[in-house]
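task queued by scheduler; priority normal; single chain, no ligands, no partner chains; default sampling; output format set to structure tokens
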Amino acid sequence: MNVKILGFAEQSPRGSLFEKIHRVFAFIATDFQLTEVSQLHKDENCVAIYRNQHVQLECAASEIYFHAEIRRMINGVPAPYENERDSIGFEDLAILESGHDYDHFMYFAAGATGIDGVMRNTAALFKRHPEVFLTERWIDAERLRELKAADFNKKFGKSGLVYGAGKPFIDIFDSIAAAWLRKAGLRKRNDHRQLAPYDQERVCQHIIYENARGRLKISQLDWRDDYTTYYADFDGKHLTSVDTGKYPTFEEAARALLNAIMAHVR
């Protein structure tokens, strides 16, 4: 994982991005009582992390990318990224306030708005929702899920896709392979949902297991063009792959993948 923790006084060639974050979001210290607790470089992004008793806010920026994650503090600890009810992206606030009728490109740094415009728009968005940062009140997570589902189904429903329907392939594989994984001494280390949204490793769905001999990774080949294909590698050596789109069910595809892996990993 390519992460570097920075001291506040350390000079960085990407320091101007931290300066932009500090300048545009200066109000969160006075208005929201958020204190900066750390800075880090993650992949190409500069990440500034703020915290108060209610939330942890993580602002990640490069010249062509911006994301802010708002993680609810639960018993003094930020909610895990995979907890979608208590860890939300900044655009989720735009979805809720507009009923999912907003201009996504206002928050798209690689477009005409640019990183400066996206930061300004995000700052204005935060100012419209101080209760999220300052109180125990939280977003309506069920309403957010409904809005996302309605938008997804409107766009893709004709293709037979349904928002949230069924388990992801990696979860089905994990269930079907459970007995063999135990026998092989392979324990789950993590999957993509446990990573920060600004982590490049999160782009493709994956799950990682480890034993004394090495690491087994099951992953999507690509998030856009080959998203139905999953591959397996052991310590970086490719073992096999399966195109789930060629099987009637994820279960059958998972069994085929497992059988192929078992021929390589004993």
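post-processing summary
- Confidence is low (pLDDT under 50) at residues 3-13.
- The first strand starts at residue 3 and ends at 6.
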